[in-house]
Amino acid sequence: MSILPKKNELGFFEIRLESIGGLGANLAGKMLAEAGVLSLGLKGSNFSSYGSEKKGSPVKSFIRFCDPEVEIRDHSPIEQPHIVGVFHEALYKTVNVVSGLDAEGIVLVNTSRDFDDVRRDLQLEYGTLAIIDALSIAVEEKTKVNTAMLGALYRICDFLDPESMRDVIRKTFTKKYPHLVEPNIRTFDRGYNEVQFKTYEVPEGAKGKNFTRSKPQLGFLTQEIGGVITAQANSILKDLSGSRQGFLPEFKQEKCIHCAACDNVCPDFCFVWEEGEDKRGRKQMFLKGIDYQYCKGCLKCVEACPTDALGDLRELLGYADENRVKQNFPFVAGGRF
User: Fold this and answer.
1) For residue 19, which of 101, 100, 115, 84 has the smallest C-alpha distance?
2) How many helices (H) and strands (E) does the chain have?
3) pLDDT for 198-220, tens place per residue?
4) Measured between alpha carbons, how far is 214 from 197 in angstroms, rounded to an integer?
């Protein structure tokens, strides 16, 4: 008799992890599949999808399980998952993380907010919502978000044996990072024990969410001749807030000496300056604040600041919008400078 709680028409139980580069979703998917195959004798597969392999880029990790007698001959991305794990809340802005979710599916979200707020942002009508403050656990245990998320996923996938994942953690870290074995096991256990659930009633005959595949604005039929970029410096059109891993720089203007050390190390357009005069009437550039649209939370500016004008801050919902000082790019829509 199968131990899998649900299966699609091909006999697969499918999980999709939505994340950004640097949070460990790729490794989490590998460890989850490995534990299911080695400890329970299930057949399984795991693979990931991402663009540029760097911190902050959107990442998807796919896990399929099936009974031993079923052959896995499907290696396409998972479009109708039974479980979705969201490693970073800011993904809501740019990615439809619940696309294709089963009507009775489960969404696990790394968040410190309450159920109804998260449900509204996800536009989740029914199904089960699970929340875990994986970032706080990772900060306290000095580990990564992925281990706490694995613990929560194991609580959701109750057919999996938690002890098998503890063995995988030991196997993964013992050789190169033995000092991280116990902190990661504690993080896994906390994720398993601290995840919370709330189920929204599924009406009879309810269907899962439609899967939508995002399309580029400029494609084969719509691209300009020669592949022309229609707006100069087009990176200023992007919102990099989804790249942050839970922290951002906090600016204290009264402590700033306007030395521009922060701007020298900033890889993007974060710092906003204005021309003014110092006490002697000499012209000088003064730092007004930070445009958090372009901040991906690398915190290089915090390391470079010679005073306490910049510090690292655990990002709170709405903080970036309330404290953002906007850049002025008058030619963003194209034209010549």
Assistant:
1) 84
2) 9, 11
3) 999 888 877 777 777 766 666 67
4) 30
Q: Is the distance from CB of 194 to CB of 132 less than 8 angstroms?
A: yes
DSSP state of 78: P
Please provide the distance, in angstroms rounded to a whole number, between the alpha carbons at the two ends of the chain.
Answer: 70
- Tell me the H-state helices in the chain: 25-40, 115-122, 134-141, 145-156, 162-173, 181-194, 261-265, 300-304, 319-323
Q: Is the dihedral of CA 296, 300, 301, 302 positive or negative?
A: positive
Of 164, 166, 112, 171, the C-alpha closest to 138 is 112
Measured distance CA(19)–CA(60) in Å, rounded: 6
**Cβ–Cβ < 8 Å for 172, 31:** yes
Pick the closest to residue 60 from 48, 75, 47, 52 (CA basis): 48
Query: Are the CB atoms for 258 and 35 separated by under 8 Å?
Result: no
- For 93-106, how does the pLDDT look when each residue is reduced to its tens digit (9 = 90+)? 778 888 899 888 99
Specify the pTM.
0.79
Structure tokens at 6: 């649900």
SS3 140: helix
Listed residue (238, 328, 282) closest to 56, CA to CA: 238
* pLDDT, tens digit (0-9, with 9 covering 90-100), for 298-333: 899 999 999 999 999 988 878 898 999 999 887 665
Residues 320 and 199: their CA atoms lie apart, in Å, by 31
